[in-house]
Amino acid sequence: MSDFWIIVFAISVMLGAVGGAAVTTWFERRLLGLWQDRYGPNRLGPFGIGQVAADMIKLLTKHDWVPPFADKWVFIFAPTAIVVAMLLGFAVVPFGPGLQIIDLNIGLLFFLGMTSLAVYSVLLGGLASNNKYALLGGLRSAAQMVSYEVFMGLSLMGVVMLSGSFSMADIVESQRDGWYCFSQFLGLFVFVIAAIAESHRLPFDLPEAEHELTAGFHTEYSGMKFAMFMLGEYLGLILISCMITTLFFGGWLAPFSLTFIPAIIWFSLKTFLVICFFILLRCAIPRPRYDQLMSLGWKIMLPITLINLVITGAVALWIAGA
Amino acid sequence: MRDLVESLVSQLRTIWTILLHSFTKAETVQYPEEKPYLAPRYRGRIVLTQDPDGDERCVACNLCAAACPPDCISLQQGTREEDGRWYPEFFRINFSRCIMCGLCEEACPTNAFQLIPDFEMCEYERENMIYEKEHLMIDGPGKYHDYNFYRVAGMEIEGKKKGQAENEAEPIDIRSLLP
């Protein structure tokens, strides 16, 4: 692609991601409603989709308040960091053959780096608010990041071993003879759990935890700054779903050689299903206690990841030697 | 290890159960379009009823105002010149305070006070939630069709002497020695 078209594509990806995140807020509420035997927002527009616009107007017209006791500049910076980091993460997502803003040879590392940067936003938001609830939320987020970041990266190393590359396009290409969700089942299992923890979604939304910490790290936020946190969270959800699709479900590759349907449609469909699965998890599973989260991470998830890593390495070497 | 497997299976079963809820019907009642069923004895808006003869039942005894937990009832007793019946000179219920507990209905000795199955009282101004006697009074006996307080009570009014009420004996003549 020429420079001009790359810029056009990058802008359309950004708008698509932000728009998708906005629609996901509504879609999630409808889906939660379906699974909780109620309707969800269904009044405004067809199927209630006007709720997105209504929420946006509400958030835009709210008083954009900075508490006098807060650390002003950090307080303002925190919500932008999460959105910027998550949007940058979309740069390496292969939406189709050649449909990628930049095919970095360390694309996977770039993605991991960007999602880790997003955690700073939560941390700084919690610190700058100068509020006990927010501080506790930030603290939990830090502990969660330390424990889950470790095996989030490690769980993907199996994929890297099998494909022999960190580049997203190569990883997708290497899944032509079999998606990694089968051979890397343990990796997928661990990555899904780590990804939920990383994007602070239920059941691992301990930094937010409405029932214990009012709103956790964004207790003091209102208006557009709050909306930025929400946008970041939903961008994170979409980004993580895109990544799971790319790394484990063959990305834009068509299953059963159904290649007459365009690759981008396959990619969107798979991502959509993964998003639905995340919403289902949110709907079904209660939030674990703080220490349970930690012990799950270090005592179960890390050993599983290491076992997976060793077995994958052994099998990869055996295949290479044979 | 066994605990681990059991808890994992439990989580997966939870997810499956929730997924099956895709096929169950929503419990929601879409309120303004779809009205919920209200039982005939539902406690909602308060009305003042009338005798079968078309005279107001309320005798302004103030028991309802005394029973009312949020003190939303206010009335003034008056005596009618022509027949000696008691009646409320004004009767005022502040529905923005009313909790629809129905204690006033239970306290009412004349069955004048009744709660009806209607809760849809919405106003843009708070003052409009204050109902006066003319707003509360309905043209009918409500739940008790034949009841007429003055026909069963011993009180003397125009056209009904002492002892003429239903099931009431003649008053004892205290100046007579006859049994």
Give an overview in words.
Chain A is 70% helix and 0% strand. Chain A is mostly helical. In chain A, α5 runs parallel beside α12. Chain B is of the alpha+beta class and 179 residues long. Chain B has a domain of 107 residues: 2-Layer Sandwich (Alpha-Beta Plaits), CATH 3.30.70. Chain B has a 3-stranded antiparallel β-sheet. Chain B has a two-stranded antiparallel ribbon with strand order 1-4. Chain B is elongated and about 100 Å long. The model of chain B has no long low-confidence stretch (mean pLDDT 86).
Explain the layout of strands and helices:
The complex is a heterodimer of chains A (322) and B (179).
Chain A: H1 3-35, H2 50-61, H3 72-89, H4 107-128, H5 132-163, H6 168-173, H7 180-183, H8 185-198, H9 210-213, H10 223-248, H11 263-284, H12 290-321
Helix pairs in contact in A: 1-10, 1-11, 2-10, 3-4, 3-10, 4-5, 5-8, 5-12, 8-10, 8-12, 10-11
Chain B: H1 2-20, E1 46-48, H2 63-67, E2 73-79, E3 86-94, H3 103-107, E4 113-115, E5 130-131, H4 133-136, H5 149-152
Antiparallel strand pairs in B: 1-4, 2-3, 3-5
